[in-house]
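C-alpha cells for chain A. Residues wanted.
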C-alpha cells in the first residue's frame, strides 16, 4: 500500500464531486468503494476528503444554493506548476475560463475552464495538497479521458497546454481514441463521441479501479445507483459505466487481462 506524493504537469491528479446530498453520497461511495471520510470543513463549503487506508482519494462537497439546478457531476483536475501561465494558454488555445486561479489556503491554487470542445476541467497547482495519495488500486481512481465531439480539435487544445505525446489508437473512424502520454507513460485519453451518445455534451470521465467490475456494478445497484452500460470487456480490463443515486456518472474498471 503505497502513497503517491506527486504528478507531472498535465496529469489528472485529483477529482471531486458536487452532490445535492452529501450524507447520501458518502453512504453510497462507502458502500461501493469502502471509503472513509474526513469531517466536512464548513469554511470550505463543507468540502470533505475521501480516504483509503488514511490516504486521500477524492474530494466531495454539497451543491451551493445557486447550484441546485446544475447536474451532479465529477470534475477532474490536471496538475500544473503555474496556474496563471496555464490559464493564459487555455485562452490562447480557444478555451474559456470559468473560475480564474484562486488560493485554497495552505493547500494550493485551483482554476476551472472549458476546453476548446466544451468539456469542463480543473487545474490544480499544489502546495500542501499534492493530489490523490491513493491511485490505480482497488477503490481509487485510475484513469481519466475526455469524451469529445471534435477529437482533432480537442487533441490540439491539450497539446497547447502540456507536453503530451499523443498516440492514435483504433482506425480513427469506427473507433477514434488518442492516448495522452507524459514522460513515456499514459496518463489519460480522448475518445471521439459518436451518434450513439445522443445529446450528451463533451465531458471528462473518471474511472475507478475495482477487483471485480460485475460485483462492483452490483454494489452500485444495491446502494441506489444505476448501471448505464456494460459490464463489457476491453483490452485494458472489464468496464462498467454507472451513476450514483444523484446522477453523477463515472466508470469502474477491473484489472488488465494477463497475457496468455
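Reply:
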Amino acid at each position: 500500500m503505497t502513497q503517491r506524493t506527486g504528478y507531472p504537469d498535465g496529469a489528472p491528479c485529483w477529482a471531486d464531486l458536487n452532490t445535492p446530498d452529501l450524507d447520501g453520497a458518502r453512504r453510497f461511495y462507502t458502500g461501493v468503494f469502502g471509503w472513509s471520510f474526513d469531517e466536512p470543513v464548513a469554511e470550505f463549503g463543507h468540502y470533505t476528503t475521501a480516504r483509503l487506508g488514511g490516504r486521500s482519494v477524492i474530494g466531495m462537497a454539497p451543491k451551493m444554493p445557486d447550484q441546485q439546478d446544475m447536474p451532479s457531476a465529477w470534475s477532474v483536475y490536471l496538475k500544473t506548476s503555474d496556474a496563471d501561465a496555464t490559464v493564459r494558454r487555455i485562452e490562447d488555445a480557444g478555451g474559456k475560463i470559468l473560475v480564474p486561479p484562486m488560493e485554497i489556503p495552505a493547500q494550493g491554487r485551483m482554476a476551472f475552464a472549458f476546453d476548446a470542445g466544451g468539456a469542463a476541467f480543473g487545474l490544480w497547482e499544489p502546495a500542501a495538497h499534492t493530489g490523490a495519495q491513493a491511485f490505480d488500486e482497488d477503490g481509487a481512481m485510475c484513469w481519466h479521458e475526455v469524451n469529445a465531439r471534435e477529437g482533432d480539435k480537442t487533441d490540439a487544445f491539450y497539446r497547447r497546454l502540456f507536453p503530451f505525446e499523443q498516440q492514435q489508437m483504433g482506425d480513427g473512424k469506427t473507433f477514434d481514441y488518442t492516448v495522452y502520454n507524459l514522460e513515456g507513460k499514459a496518463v489519460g485519453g480522448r475518445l471521439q463521441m459518436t451518434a450513439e451518445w445522443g445529446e450528451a455534451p463533451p465531458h471528462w470521465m473518471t474511472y475507478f479501479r475495482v477487483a471485480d467490475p460485475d460485483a462492483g456494478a452490483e454494489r452500485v445497484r444495491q446502494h441506489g445507483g444505476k448501471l448505464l452500460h456494460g459490464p463489457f470487456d476491453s483490452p485494458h480490463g472489464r468496464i462498467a459505466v454507472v451513476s450514483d443515486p444523484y446522477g453523477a456518472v463515472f466508470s469502474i474498471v477491473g484489472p488488465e487481462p494477463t497475457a496468455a
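The longest helix spans residues 22-33. The chain has two domains: 12-126, 141-253.
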